[in-house]
């Protein structure tokens, strides 16, 4: 399915979805205490946004956030295990109380890159854990974020996916990871369709193979993979698209 452009809106509708200045935007990045998520938080913070750096271990999150604050960015570490509904609900309540808005959600938290597993023999408990993190984690956060975004008729949801989750992707490795990312892509398309015309854009981004703890050595610099995610998180209202799958700002097949 091709990304769907926003329909024309009346002057009143356009005013409701006015793009807020970068300095007023609040962004949440999950799994952001290291690797790709940390670089996304750094780039968003450098743009002027307030960034909530989500981490399962708050101490690790605070350690990651301190250098970004020293560099001049407004980055706050927050407790966030995306597999915990309690964590998600508590963070949503805090965001509503402290900021009254959420403009950007980057669902970056991911795990279970099971390169040595095969579909005929992988542990189903392993598959279930991958789905709980990579799909349901994003789903939990999406359900928490949408009401805050609807309040101002503006939002950007970016689901960090992978080309190996594409339906036509060939390969027998990473079965748990592949299935969870394919499901994340489907969720992206459904949510984008539901929110079309609301001022909230929902897209999936494949960062490519980057040199992180998950990706391993040999990948491209993390900053290059993060740049495409940040681009989707900052799409302007005019001419923007929703329900797309991108790598390096170019559309790729589902």
Strand content: 15-25%
Mean pLDDT: 89
Strand ordering within the main sheet: 4-3-2-5-6-7-9-10
How many strands, what sense, and barrel or not for the largest sheet? Answer: 8 strands, mixed
Query: Given the structure, what is the number of helices?
Result: 7
Q: Quaternary status of these chains?
A: single chain
Task: Report low-confidence residues grouped into runs of 5 or more.
Answer: 1-16
Class from helix and strand fractions: alpha/beta
Task: Tell me the series of helices and strands, N- to C-terminal.
Answer: EHEHEHEHEHEHEHEEE
Molecular shape: globular
Overall number of strands: 10
Distance between the termini: 8 Å
Task: Tell me about this structure.
It is built from seven helices and ten strands. It has 254 residues and is of the alpha/beta class. The strands form two sheets. It has an eight-stranded mixed β-sheet with strand order 4-3-2-5-6-7-9-10, with helices on both faces. Strands 1-8 form a two-stranded antiparallel ribbon. Strand 5, helix 5 (124-150) and strand 6 form a beta-alpha-beta unit. Helix 2 packs across helix 7 (222-233), helix 4 (85-98) runs parallel beside helix 5 (124-150) and helix 5 (124-150) runs parallel beside helix 6 (175-195). The longest helix is centred in the middle third of the chain and has 27 residues, at 124-150. It is globular and about 50 Å long.
């Amino acid at each position: 399915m091709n990304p769907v452009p926003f329909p024309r809106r009346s002057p009143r509708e356009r005013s409701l979805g006015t793009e807020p200045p970068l300095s007023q935007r609040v962004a949440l990045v999950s799994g952001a205490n290291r690797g790709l998520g940390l670089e996304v938080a750094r780039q968003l913070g450098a743009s002027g946004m307030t960034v909530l750096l989500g981490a399962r271990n708050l101490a690790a999150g605070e350690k990651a956030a301190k250098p970004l604050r020293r560099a001049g960015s407004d980055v706050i570490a927050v407790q966030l295990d995306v597999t915990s509904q309690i964590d998600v609900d508590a963070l949503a309540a805090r965001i509503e109380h402290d900021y009254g808005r959420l403009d950007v959600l980057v669902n970056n938290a991911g795990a279970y890159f099971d390169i040595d597993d095969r579909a005929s023999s992988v542990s189903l408990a392993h598959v279930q854990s991958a789905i709980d993190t990579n799909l349901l984690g994003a789903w939990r956060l999406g359900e928490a974020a949408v009401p805050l975004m609807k309040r101002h008729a503006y939002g950007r949801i970016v689901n960090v996916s992978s080309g190996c989750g594409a339906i036509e992707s060939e390969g027998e490795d990473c079965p748990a990871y592949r299935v969870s990312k394919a499901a994340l892509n489907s969720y992206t398309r459904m949510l984008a369709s539901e929110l079309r015309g609301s001022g909230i854009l929902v897209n999936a981004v494949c960062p490519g193979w980057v040199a992180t703890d998950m990706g391993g050595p040999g990948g491209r610099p993390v900053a290059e993979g993060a740049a495409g995610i940040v681009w989707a998180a900052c799409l302007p209202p005019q001419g923007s698209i929703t329900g797309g799958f991108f790598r390096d700002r170019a559309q790729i097949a589902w």
